């Protein structure tokens, strides 16, 4: 099982390496394989508990859908909203902290949702309470302080995808 974890993590690391270098020269391929195997050898026991989960094609499909939703729907809507607030003559903002409950289970899912919230303009996760399963989010325009309504506004779609990818 450990060898499978090393193999899966090194493949993922190699793919990320090639994508970020933008090169498929012999040097990059060889150095990418070596570096990804060494790093995976050290990190696989910390990062992957169940390597079979990582090679499930359904999870990869959900990850692709999550990425498409995030980049082409959530990000675009959030950017347009923030631009509206910046360009509006009265700059209509109502900033505040709201408590947002979550229902995802794994640390990876909690982190993915928190990062999605933070990377979306207008919201920032400032704290996570894992015992009570709540995020504390700074919101540029607080529409509600009711935790469930805030969850529907801020994180429900991120959780929908994160559960299918990580839980």
Describe this structure in words.
This protein is mostly helical. Helices cover 65% and strands 11% of the residues. Helix 1 crosses helix 2 and helix 4 (57-87) packs antiparallel against helix 7 (156-166). The two termini are 20 Å apart.
Key structural traits:
167 residues; 3 strands; single chain; 3-stranded antiparallel sheet; globular; mainly alpha; 65% helix
Please outline the helices and strands.
Elements: H1 2-21, H2 26-47, H3 51-54, H4 57-87, E1 96-101, H5 107-119, E2 123-129, E3 134-139, H6 147-154, H7 156-166
Antiparallel strand pairs: 1-3, 2-3
Put the structure in a nutshell:
65% of the residues lie in helices and 11% in strands. The chain is mostly helical.
**Gyration radius, in Å:** 19 Å
Based on Cα principal axes, name the global outline: globular
Spans of at least 5 consecutive residues whose pLDDT stays below 50 are none
What characterizes the major β-sheet? 3 strands, antiparallel
In terms of quaternary structure, the protein is: single chain
What structural category do the secondary elements indicate? mainly alpha
The order of strands across the largest sheet is: 1-3-2
**Span between N and C termini?**
20 Å
Beta content comes to 5-15%
Helix content: 55-70%
- Along the chain, the helix and strand elements come as HHHHEHEEHH
Strand elements, count: 3
Number of domains: 2
Number of helices: 7
pLDDT averaged over residues: 91
């Amino acid at each position: 099982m450990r060898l499978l974890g090393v193999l899966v993590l090194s493949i993922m690391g190699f793919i990320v390496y090639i994508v970020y270098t933008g090169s498929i020269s012999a040097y990059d391929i060889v150095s990418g394989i070596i570096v990804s195997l060494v790093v995976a050898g050290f990190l696989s026991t910390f990062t992957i508990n169940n390597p079979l989960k990582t090679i499930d094609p359904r999870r990869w499909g959900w990850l692709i859908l999550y990425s498409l939703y995030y980049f082409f729907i959530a990000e675009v809507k959030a950017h347009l909203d923030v631009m509206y607030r910046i360009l509006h003559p009265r700059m209509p903002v109502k900033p505040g902290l709201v408590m947002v409950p979550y229902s995802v289970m794994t640390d990876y899912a909690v982190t993915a949702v928190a990062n999605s919230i933070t990377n979306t303009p207008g919201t920032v996760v400032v704290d996570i309470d894992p015992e009570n399963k709540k995020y504390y989010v700074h919101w540029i325009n607080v529409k509600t302080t009711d935790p469930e309504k805030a969850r529907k506004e801020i994180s429900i779609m991120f959780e929908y995808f994160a559960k299918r990818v990580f839980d």
